[in-house]
Amino acid sequence: MDKLKRVLSGQDAEESSGMSEVMDATTLSWGTRMKGFIACFAIGVLCSILGTCLLWVPRKGLILFAVFYTLGNIASIGSTVFLMGPMKQLKRMFEPTRLIATIIMLWHNKGLALIFCILQFFALAWYSISFIPFARDAVKKCASVCLS
Hints:
Layout: H1 2-9, H2 17-26, H3 30-53, H4 61-79, H5 81-84, H6 86-92, H7 96-106, H8 113-129, H9 135-147
């Protein structure tokens, strides 16, 4: 568990003890990181769902959709900062294992808004769990058991 915490906090084994102490003093605990991730992700998904539902409100629906959906995406993407930290996340966002999810997450199209909203939820969830070691494998195994 300590190794998992070190990897997610960006600490390497080669760090000097002085730098390690500074990192320990300035980073969030594992429990706080998970709580922050879950809270931000849930708020983001709720805002995005609300925005999608508001899309069909007459006259102001498109504006409400844009505001709530954008806020939801910012909160959801921001939730993954709790897992890795902002700089490390930006660096890892465009790695080959996350590139397709990143592109889908950032791609918006008004004409197919509902389809892309659903795809974006899945892409964001897949992108988010990519920061949790072995989570993708667990989801794949669970899905294969459920579908077989």
